[in-house]
Design brief:
By secondary structure, this protein is mostly beta strands. The protein is built from one helix and eleven strands. It is globular, with a radius of gyration of 18 Å.
C-alpha cells in the first residue's frame, strides 16, 4: 500500500511539472550535465564544498548536435548555524569558449523531516559578471524532496527518489526575467561518503521575454570527506 507521505510526494512531483503544458509554444534544447561534488568537513560547523560541472548540447534548433558548451567550477564555504540550518558564501568560475564569467553567491539552507520525507529549502542570491554583458542579479528559492525507497531514513546500499522545484527572479539592465526549474530523479547511496544521482532537469526560462524550454540529462557524483 502507498502511504500518505508517498501520495503527497508524488502529488508534489505532478504539480511541479505544470509548466510542461507550454512545451509546444517555444524553443527547445536538450543538454547533458554531468557533475562532481566533493565536500570537506573542517569541523562540526564549517565545511568546504567544491563542484565541477561541464555541459554539452545534444539537441538544439530542431536537430541533434554534439557540442561542448561550457564548464563551471565552484567553491562554497558553509557554516552550520543551527541543527538543520546553514549559511554559505560561494564563488563560481564559468569558462565558455574564450570568455570567463564570475558569480558570487550568498545562501541559506535548511532541512526538515515529514515522516519518511526529507524536505530541503534553499534561499540564494547571486551576482554574475560576464565579459561584455551587464551585471546579472538573481533571487532564487528551491524546495527539494527526498524519499527513501526502503525504511524511514536513507542508509547505505539503498535507493531513493529525489525532486526539486526552483523559482528564479533575475534582473539584467534594463529588464527583469523569471525562470522555473524542476528536477525529478533517483539516487543510490554506496556509503556515508559516496552517493550517485541521475535524473531529468527541466527549465523554463525567458518567461517575460519569450519562453524557452530546456531539458538537462543530469548525472551527479557526491563525495564527503
Amino acid at each position: 500500500m502507498i502511504s500518505n507521505t508517498q501520495r503527497q510526494f508524488f502529488c508534489l512531483l505532478l504539480f511541479s511539472l505544470w509548466g510542461a503544458s507550454l512545451w509546444s509554444q517555444a524553443a527547445h534544447q536538450v543538454d547533458f550535465l554531468p557533475q562532481i561534488n566533493a565536500s570537506f568537513s573542517i569541523d562540526k560547523k564549517w565545511k568546504l564544498i567544491h563542484r565541477i560541472e561541464p555541459r554539452y548540447n545534444f539537441f538544439a534548433g530542431g536537430k541533434f548536435v554534439s557540442v561542448y558548451d561550457r564548464t563551471d567550477a565552484s567553491l562554497f564555504v558553509s557554516r552550520k548555524i543551527s541543527l538543520n540550518g546553514a549559511l554559505a558564501l560561494g564563488y563560481l568560475l564559468r569558462q565558455q569558449g574564450t570568455d570567463f564569467g564570475h558569480r558570487f553567491s550568498q545562501q541559506y539552507t535548511t532541512t526538515s523531516k515529514l515522516k519518511h520525507l526529507k524536505l530541503g529549502h534553499r534561499l540564494l542570491v547571486d551576482e554574475t559578471i560576464f565579459s561584455g554583458r551587464a551585471l546579472l542579479l538573481r533571487l532564487r528559492y528551491r524546495l527539494s524532496l527526498e524519499l527513501p525507497l526502503a525504511g524511514q531514513s536513507l542508509d547505505p546500499k539503498e535507493f531513493y527518489l529525489k525532486a526539486s522545484n526552483e523559482h528564479i527572479l533575475a534582473y539584467r539592465k534594463p529588464e527583469f526575467d523569471y525562470e522555473i526549474r524542476t528536477f525529478i530523479g533517483a539516487g543510490y547511496v554506496f556509503s556515508k561518503a559516496y552517493r550517485l544521482e541521475t535524473g531529468l532537469d527541466y527549465r523554463i526560462s525567458n518567461i517575460m521575454t519569450g519562453i524557452n524550454h530546456q531539458f538537462l540529462l543530469y548525472w551527479g557524483l557526491f563525495m564527503s570527506f
